[in-house]
Amino acid sequence: MSLFWTTVDWILDHLTPQTLLHVILWLIGWFFVCYLLEFGVVYLMITIIYLIFTNLGKRKKGELSAYSMFNHNFEQITGTFDGEFYDNMLRRGGSSINKNINGHCICGSVKKYKKCCMKNHNINVSYRRNEQLLFLKTNNRFPKKK
């Protein structure tokens, strides 16, 4: 019997009188709809839909959406399980492949990117490629294809 009173005390301490009144009125309404009209399941489903829509919140400025199509540049949140990730996990065991592995290196030599002296720098691949093209254009030397 002490568990019952502990639960009642917790409910009275944590719920405002207005919320408690709403819960009591909902239970009374559910009783009448369930026993008199025999629509208890429908009442419960409508209540769940109501609770879902009333508890939806607005995103704060700069906060990412869980759906990447609503984010700027389709940016994904951490832990998103998309098709590319799944394909990468199945085919390559989860390792990421550098897409510029066979391109020319940034430093302007004729070496391939995978043997470039600057490949260990923490620079974005597209940024590296742009730097490489800028370097080659300004120095008027493009690597010759064999």
UniProtKB/TrEMBL annotation:
<keyword id="KW-0812">Transmembrane</keyword>
<keyword id="KW-1133">Transmembrane helix</keyword>
<dbReference type="InterPro" id="IPR019387">
    <property type="entry name" value="SAYSvFN_dom"/>
</dbReference>
<protein>
    <recommendedName>
        <fullName>SAYSvFN domain-containing protein</fullName>
    </recommendedName>
</protein>
<feature type="domain" description="SAYSvFN">
    <location>
        <begin position="23"/>
        <end position="88"/>
    </location>
</feature>
<feature type="transmembrane region" description="Helical">
    <location>
        <begin position="20"/>
        <end position="53"/>
    </location>
</feature>
<dbReference type="InterPro" id="IPR039159">
    <property type="entry name" value="SAYSD1"/>
</dbReference>
<dbReference type="Pfam" id="PF10260">
    <property type="entry name" value="SAYSvFN"/>
</dbReference>
<keyword id="KW-0472">Membrane</keyword>
